[in-house]
């Protein structure tokens, strides 16, 4: 993988390990020669991650809509900073630059970005790994929700294999490097019943 797009909170959260693991991910990505694509902020987990990559001499590309410069505090020390017109263009640009996706802890924006790329993986729009760094079990409820959707018949049993979920940075990156999209059947169960 040449670059990974990381979705992360623009706040650091209330547990010190969130920021510590964001920095660890940044260090490990840089050591492995993996560039970072992210939202372009200098604050929160976004800033912790970007600074860690930069401190190791790694590549960091920030992508930010013009209207978020004040709220997200644009990072001016990046390898490249790309200005786009809106959130849709931001996500499309980040996706075009990245070979995989990771979500660090974050809020509604992080959830929305991550679920979109997971949905696209499910539909076969891309073949890239979609991962969660499960710091302090932050994403355990998301994994449980996914299992519930399978049990309730809204997703197929194999769909949970679309997600790489680890609480260790090294294991996460190694699983992403080895990732092969699972072979999935028809997503629409009713179509099979009517054929």
From TrEMBL:
This protein's UniProt keywords: Cytokinin biosynthesis, Hydrolase
GO CC annotations, alphabetized: cytosol
Record GO biological process: cytokinin biosynthetic process
PANTHER family listed in its UniProt record: LOG FAMILY PROTEIN YJL055W
The enzyme's E.C. designation: 3.2.2.n1
Designated name of the protein: Cytokinin riboside 5'-monophosphate phosphoribohydrolase
Family: Belongs to the LOG family.
Pfam families with a match to the protein in the record: Lysine_decarbox (PF03641)
């Amino acid at each position: 993988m040449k670059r990974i797009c990381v979705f992360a909170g623009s706040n650091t959260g209330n547990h010190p390990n969130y920021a510590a693991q964001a920095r660890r991910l940044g260090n490990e990505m840089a050591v492995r020669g993996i560039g970072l694509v992210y939202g372009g902020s200098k604050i929160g987990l976004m800033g912790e991650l970007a600074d860690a990559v930069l401190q190791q001499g790694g590549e960091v590309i920030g992508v930010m809509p013009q209207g978020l410069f004040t709220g997200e505090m644009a990072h001016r020390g990046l390898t490249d900073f790309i200005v786009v017109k809106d959130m849709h263009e931001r996500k499309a640009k980040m996706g075009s630059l990245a070979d995989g996706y990771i979500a660090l802890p974050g809020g509604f924006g992080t959830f929305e970005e991550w679920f979109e790329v997971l949905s696209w993986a499910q539909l076969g729009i891309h073949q890239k790994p979609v991962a969660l760094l499960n710091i302090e079990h932050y994403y355990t409820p998301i994994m449980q929700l996914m299992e519930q959707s399978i049990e309730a018949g809204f997703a197929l049993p194999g769909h949970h294999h679309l997600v790489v979920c680890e609480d260790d940075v090294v294991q996460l990156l190694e699983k992403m490097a080895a990732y092969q999209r699972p072979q999935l059947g028809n997503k629409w169960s009713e179509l099979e019943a009517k054929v």
